[in-house]
Design a protein that fits this description.
Elements: E1 4-8, H1 19-27, E2 34-38, H2 41-51, E3 56-60, H3 77-82, E4 87-90, H4 93-98, H5 103-115, E5 119-124, H6 128-132, H7 136-147, E6 157-161, H8 175-193, E7 201-205, H9 210-217, E8 224-227, H10 234-244
Parallel strand pairs: 1-2, 1-8, 2-3, 3-4, 4-5, 5-6, 6-7, 7-8
Helix pairs in contact: 1-10, 5-7, 7-8, 9-10
């Protein structure tokens, strides 16, 4: 399976930031992994145009479950595809926390993504309290069961394991902790999706940087990374792409 380095710019990026794409593309003209940037919605169309002819795919950070209608401020999966996106992140912990998104909402968004021909990156992960209470596998297992729709395939779904306490904090689980969760995710996906599960990419996310990427990518069932802060600068993200390739 081709591994994936996915960058989530979150609510960062203006016209001038697009220059990072040029730098990333020239440093990695033929990467050995898939490379994805999910800018804010305002930049998706421009970034997609700028990335044309490079190995960089583009995507969005969220979508509405509906195709169109009276949903002020929202963006549909079809609009993302129309703007050149190929992927959409759904169920990021910041959306679950800031917008009260439940597993059912995340599942509906993933289905909307598929209807528009997008690949859904479905995010799961425990809080620090949940980890300290020894509930990590139960919490992540529940999120997987509730957030991934029936019909998930290796081609339409990527799963991102992102411990909430590791996002943007500089704290990273041990390699053994990452491996334990990724092995458990693979086992749960195999039980539900049989042969398709082996090809579904499982990303680790949470304070991945060039300096820790190689060791994280060496963990079993880690098929890439979802990267926030370190995706904003081509030099940092390029280091992560290089570690995956
Ligand atoms: C993320 O938001 O998906 C993320 C992993 O952020 P960071 O890399 O900054 O921890």
């Amino acid at each position: 399976m081709k591994k994936l380095a996915a960058g989530n710019w979150k609510m960062n990026g203006l016209e001038a930031t697009l220059a990072e794409i040029d730098a990333l593309a020239s440093a990695h003209p033929a990467p050995g992994c898939d490379v994805l940037i999910c800018p804010p919605a305002t930049l998706l169309s421009r970034l997609s145009a700028r990335a044309e002819g490079t190995a960089i795919a583009t995507g969005a950070q969220d979508c509405h479950p509906n195709e169109s209608g009276a949903h002020t401020g929202d963006v549909s999966a079809g609009m993302i595809a129309d703007a050149g996106g190929a992927y959409v992140i759904v169920g990021h912990s910041e959306r679950r926390a800031d917008h009260g998104e439940s597993d059912a909402v995340v599942r509906a968004k993933a289905e909307a993504a598929w209807r528009a021909g997008l690949i859904a990156i479905i995010c799961v992960g425990e809080t620090l309290d949940e980890r300290d209470a020894g509930r990590t596998l139960d919490i992540v297992g529940g999120q997987l069961a509730g957030s991934i729709p029936d019909g998930a395939t290796a081609a339409n779904t990527v799963v991102a394991y992102e411990p909430v306490w590791a996002i943007g904090t500089g704290k990273v689980p041990t390699l053994a902790e990452i491996g334990e969760v990724h092995d458990d995710i693979r086992a749960r996906l195999s039980a539900r999706f049989s042969g398709e599960a082996a090809g579904m990419r499982l990303l680790y996310g949470g304070s991945v940087k060039p300096s820790n990427a190689a060791e994280i990518f060496g963990v079993s069932n880690v098929d890439g990374a979802l990267v926030g802060g370190a995706s904003l600068k081509a030099a940092d993200f390029g280091g992560i792409v290089g570690a995956l390739a």
